[in-house]
Design brief:
It contains 13 helices and 12 strands. With 329 residues, it is of the alpha/beta class. It has 2 domains: 5-254, TIM Barrel (Alpha-Beta Barrel), CATH 3.20.20.70; 269-328, Ribonuclease E, catalytic domain (Hypothetical Protein Ychn, Chain: A, 3-Layer(aba) Sandwich), CATH 3.40.1260.20. Strands 1-2-3-4-5-6-8 form a 7-stranded parallel beta sheet. A 3-stranded mixed beta sheet has the order 11-10-12. A two-stranded antiparallel sheet has the order 7-9. It starts with a strand and ends with a strand.
Length: 329
């Protein structure tokens, strides 16, 4: 089922820490506080555009850490739209150390369905270096508490943070999967203006992932979470807000997920073809996977051609995702 949000950003409100990578004003494109009118207008506009069965999502990373009366005023403004069916529920994102029984009881009363935790890493050295202000145990404790209250759990992780490695990211993914979230978001680190990482990058003390490195790692993470039946609902920083103007360095691409899916299919093609003689081949995949197999701007087809394998991609809807059949001509 396609995931759909009506997103509002509560940027930096209530957040007790300034993480090394964070500039929510650039990510959201807004410096103003969310108001009751913003909620009404966002839902009305979404409804008028034909958006159905969407959740109202309060993003920004620290919803349950904002001033309590303000938090409840936003929930109170949104709840009538849950009650009348204009939205399917409310989704919030927050910090692992901003969850307890009291706040979960409040969220339950106002129709919140889903809580996303910004774990980012499960390596305590990486968390400390990036000034997250919480530990891996905070993630575990909060995730279990959220599920005990009957909320849908979403988790978020980042790759390429200060002090991070590919192996640490793979270990983080395994630890997060054990918490059995319904959804995951994976964000390669992007260096934004006016952040600690920008200073470290310019001083030579931090080297961000290249786009190619991030695609290679995140394609593996995507395969891993899908193998665990965990839906990855976001892969790469979204292209809205002021991201392009605030970008300094790092693995940013407006179609990052597409690049990762292309990489998965290139790897599958190499596994199938490179053990066979060079020549001409028909490659059969499900119709929905044809463009991913061909690759962005025919990147996979062109790569195989340079390696001596001339391929035509054809459909076979009996095949599932990541399945393919190879016929030599």
């Amino acid at each position: 089922m396609r995931h759909s949000n009506i997103a509002l950003f509560v940027a930096h409100k209530g957040c007790p820490h300034k993480c090394s990578f964070c500039n929510q004003h650039i990510i959201s494109g807004s410096n103003s506080s969310v108001t009751k009118s913003d909620i009404t207008n966002a839902i009305t506009n979404a409804k008028n555009s034909g958006c159905k069965n969407a959740q109202l999502a309060f993003f920004g990373g620290s919803f349950t850490a904002i001033e309590r009366d303000y938090m409840q005023s936003l929930l109170k403004a949104a709840k009538p739209f849950v009650d009348n069916g204009d939205i399917s529920g409310i989704r919030i994102s927050t910090r692992p150390d901003a969850i307890d029984d009291e706040v979960l009881q409040i969220l339950k009363c106002y129709g919140v369905q889903t809580i996303e935790l910004g774990a980012q890493s499960m390596d305590n050295e990486v968390l400390a270096l990036n000034e997250r202000g919480h530990t891996d145990l905070d993630v575990v404790k909060s995730a279990k508490l959220i599920k005990s209250f009957g909320f849908e759990l979403g988790l978020q992780m980042m790759t390429g943070l200060l002090g991070d490695t590919d192996q640490k990211c793979l270990d983080t993914a395994k630890k997060l999967a054990k918490l059995e979230p319904s959804t995951m978001r994976i964000y390669p680190t992007v260096v934004l203006k006016n952040t600690k990482l920008e200073k470290l990058y310019k001083s030579g003390d931090y080297t961000p992932q290249s786009l190619e490195q991030a695609v290679d790692l995140c394609s593996k993470l995507l395969c891993f979470f899908e193998s665990e039946s965990i839906q990855v609902i976001r892969l790469g920083l979204h292209s809205g807000g002021d991201v392009e103007s605030g970008f300094v360095a790092g693995a940013y691409h407006p179609a990052f997920r597409e690049l990762c899916e292309n990489q998965i299919y290139q790897n599958l093609l190499k596994q199938q073809l490179f053990k066979m003689p060079k020549g001409n081949y028909n490659i059969f995949v499900n119709q929905s996977e044809i463009s991913k197999t061909i690759g962005q701007k025919k990147s996979n087809i062109n790569y195989l051609s340079r390696c001596g394998y001339n391929c035509k991609i054809k459909q076979d809807n009996a095949l599932l995702k990541y399945e393919m059949k190879v016929d030599k001509l």
